[in-house]
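Something for you to look into today, if you have time. What I am after is a single protein written out in full by you. I want to see for myself how the chain folds. Could you add the entry underneath, on a fresh line?
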Amino acid sequence: MRNIQRATARSKVRAVVAIVFAGALLAACGSGDTTGTNTSNTGPYGGGAVSSPTAAATGPATLMTKTGSAGTYLTDGAGKSLYLFALDSGGKSACNGACAAAWPPLTTTGNASASAGVTGSMLTTFKRDDGSTQVVYNGHPLYYYIGDTSPGQTNGQGLNNFGGVWSLVTPQGTAIQ
């Protein structure tokens, strides 16, 4: 009987150790952020972390222009470069899931506004599948690129990702080639 009690006690200890080990392993594996969710900020450039493509916008979006080596292109109100996706059509996004994690959509909680150099009548919005409201310019849904780690960078220009080419957007609402 005593041997059965010892064996049962050892089995319980092994089970507890296995559970603790499994929990520690899951915690270690879960420490990297693979979902695209960034809880430290709301923008796509916070400390190099990936922002959530479905994070709630903090207010109405503002579009501006910037001139750089690629020419004059659209940015958000903080000077972050905006892109269009060649596969989008009909003012709707073809970029969801992993695509939207790499190319977070520009979302807004109100009407988007245009600053000097941006044509306000070209601004519209639509509801994404996740319920967020994405900004559209001249029929093109607008996106950020997570490879742009600070305002003014244009690392996404001309990339062929997720089956199509990504381009900066001119003030006329066309792709910069």
Strands lie at 62-68, 71-76, 83-85, 113-114, 123-127, 133-137, 140-141, 160-161, 164-168. The longest strand covers residues 62-68. Helices lie at 2-29, 98-102. Residues 5-56 have pLDDT under 50 and may be disordered.
